[in-house]
Specification:
The protein is α/β, with parallel strands linked by helices. The chain folds into two domains: 135 residues, Aspartate Aminotransferase, domain 1 (Alpha-Beta Complex), CATH 3.90.1150.10; 229 residues, Type I PLP-dependent aspartate aminotransferase-like (Major domain) (Aspartate Aminotransferase, domain 2), CATH 3.40.640. It contains 14 helices and twelve strands. It has a seven-stranded mixed sheet with strand order 2-8-7-6-5-3-4, sandwiched between helices. The longest helix is centred in the middle third of the chain and has 18 residues. The relative contact order is 0.17. The mean pLDDT is 95.
Length: 392
């Protein structure tokens, strides 16, 4: 075989998201872009805020030498310190710059964390539905993903979580606000999870780490608070990026924040720095690192996503779809009107509507709709959503 058996197997089960995106491109070529309603990819449709463009212009006009050379693998010290102070604005953990590692996006950051923490065969527990790339990230580092179900409203099922913890459990990986459900974990839930992990860490005589993937932290609606894992649990690491709140997914800039009280912090951060280098990232992009300190308190217009959510929810509710209203992100995860979510997604394709089957996220019987699209796409798709559910 020309490629590794593992990669070949992963290709066969690779992301539904990309498959649907490619189907959307095919249909746009056939029917015209205005006649295809593509909700497949979580690619922000809002442009970065004006402050981003101003900052990039300022940096590009800076004639100082060495601005595009190597820097410490963990990132520029001044950027790390600025990020730490930003994190301290919403957590009591009180980080300093040494607790922050700049990364090539959240995907890069998660791989750095998993490379640092996992031995072959170690298990990482993931509540499902979840962003399915986690499986591949864990497999990259010879770990084993262990999926656990959540409740009907996508709340954490702590009994299921407790039953999944075993001798090889190394970490729990959570993602709130959640892709694909849009759910936000409450402070009470997070405290209960922290208590559970503390109990089992004591039983095992070692830390079970809590890894929190948070690229949607700022994209929340209705006054909802996103509690910080750094306030709830000592053995925690936050991984995030600026892909969603600043609409910069192509720039690949993010960071890891390590709880300052985590045991063996110096060893863990040294491992993160080494992994950042040897995984081939070397360092986070230099230009973006220099831009971020002056953009930490800015974001795209979050209310624009709230309006899109409301338009979509109102329209689908009127058609008879059932769903939990998302409190964050730009995703809706409705139930499909038949159990076979793949079949219903195919029925929507006949209306030139592209969504992703919930099975692709470990949530069969649902579909993910990424509403980070123009308002006209939502509005013009609603008759097709109604025709599809009426046919069923």
């Amino acid at each position: 075989m020309a490629i590794s058996k593992r990669v070949a197997a992963n290709i066969s089960r690779s992301s539904w998201i990309r498959k649907m995106f490619e189907e959307g491109a095919r249909r746009k070529a056939l029917y015209g872009a205005d006649n295809v309603f593509d909700f497949s990819l979580g690619n922000p449709n809002l442009e970065p805020p004006a402050q981003f463009h101003e900052e990039i212009r300022r940096l590009m006009d800076d004639p100082a030498p060495g601005r595009h050379g190597y820097m410490p693998n963990a990132g520029y010290p001044e950027t790390r310190q600025a990020v730490a102070e930003h994190v301290n604005s919403y957590t009591k953990a009180q980080l300093n710059g040494e607790d922050v590692i700049m990364t090539a996006g959240a995907g890069g950051g998660l791989n750095v964390v998993l490379k640092t923490l996992l031995d072959p065969g170690d298990e990482v527990i993931i509540p499902r539905p979840y962003f399915v790339e986690y499986d591949f990230y864990i497999d990259n580092h010879q770990g084993k993903p262990v999926q656990v179900p959540v409740g009907e409203d996508f709340a954490l099922d702590l009994d299921a979580m407790a039953a999944a913890i075993g001798e090889r459990t190394k970490a729990v990986l959570i993602n709130y606000p959640n892709n694909p459900t849009g759910r936000v974990c409450s402070r009470k839930e997070l405290d209960s999870l922290a208590a559970l992990l503390s109990e089992h860490s004591a039983r095992l005589g070692r830390s079970i780490y809590l890894i929190s993937d948070e690229p949607y932290r700022k994209i929340v609606f209705d006054g909802v608070e996103v509690p910080s894992v750094l306030d709830a649990y000592r053995d925690s690491l936050v991984v995030t990026s600026f892909s969603k709140d600043l609409s910069l997914p192509g720039e690949r800039i993010g960071y890891i924040a390590v709880h300052p009280g985590i045991p063996d912090k110096e060893l863990i951060t040294a491992g993160l720095v080494l992994s950042n280098r040897i995984l081939g990232f070397v360092n986070a992009p230099a230009l973006m690192q220099r831009a971020i300190p002056n953009l930490l308190n800015h974001s795209v217009d979050i209310d624009a996503y709230r309006k899109k959510r409301d338009m979509l929810c109102d329209g689908l509710s009127a058609c008879g779809y059932s769903f939990v209203i998302p409190k964050g992100t730009f995703y809706l995860f409705p139930r499909t009107p038949i159990d076979d979510d793949v079949a219903f997604v195919q029925a929507l394709q006949e209306e030139n509507i592209l969504v992703v089957p919930g099975s692709g996220f470990g949530g069969p019987g649902h579909m993910r709709i990424a509403f980070c699209v123009d308002d006209q796409v939502i509005e013009n798709s609603l008759p097709g959503f109604e025709r599809a559910i009426r046919k069923i």
